Amino acid sequence: MAKSTNQKAKILYLEKILQGTDETHPCTMQEILGRLQEYGISAERKSIYDDMEVLRSFGMDIKFKSCLLYTSPSPRRPE
Question: 74: which of 3, 58, 61, 78 fits an S-S bond (Cβ 3.0–4.6 Å)?
Fold first, then answer.
C-alpha cells in the first residue's frame, strides 16, 4: 500500500521531472529523488528504475549517460 496519496502518483511526477530534461539538461538520480521529496514522495533508486522501465514501455525515450538521465523528444503513442 502507498505511504501517502502522492506516493500513488510517483510515476506521474517522475514523468513530469524527466520531461524537463534533454541531452543538454540531464539530471542525476539524486536530483530526481530530491524533486520527488519536494512533492512529498519518498522513493528508492530501484523503484525509480522500475518506474522508468514502465515509462519506456509506454513510449518515453529515456536515456542514460554515465550517471545522468534525460529524455529524447519522441512522439506520443496514440491513445
Answer: 61
Find residue 22's DSSP bridge partners.
25
CB 27 within 8 A of CB 33: no
CA-nearest of 21, 22, 23 to 32 is 21
Grid cell of 26 as nine digits: 540531464
Q: Beginning with the edge strand found earlier in the chain, give each strand of the sheet holding 27-28 in spatial order.
A: 27-28, 68-72, 61-65
How far, CA to CA in Å, does 25 sit from each of 5, 41, 46, 65, 71? 30, 23, 23, 12, 9
How would you classify residue 59: left for phi > 0, otherwise alpha for psi between -120 and 50, otherwise beta?
A: left
Q: Express each pLDDT in 20-78 by its tens digit.
A: 998 889 999 999 999 999 999 999 999 999 999 999 999 999 888 766 677 776 555 55
Phi, psi at 31, each rounded to 5° = -65, -40
- Using DSSP's 3-state secondary structure scheme, residue 64 falls into strand
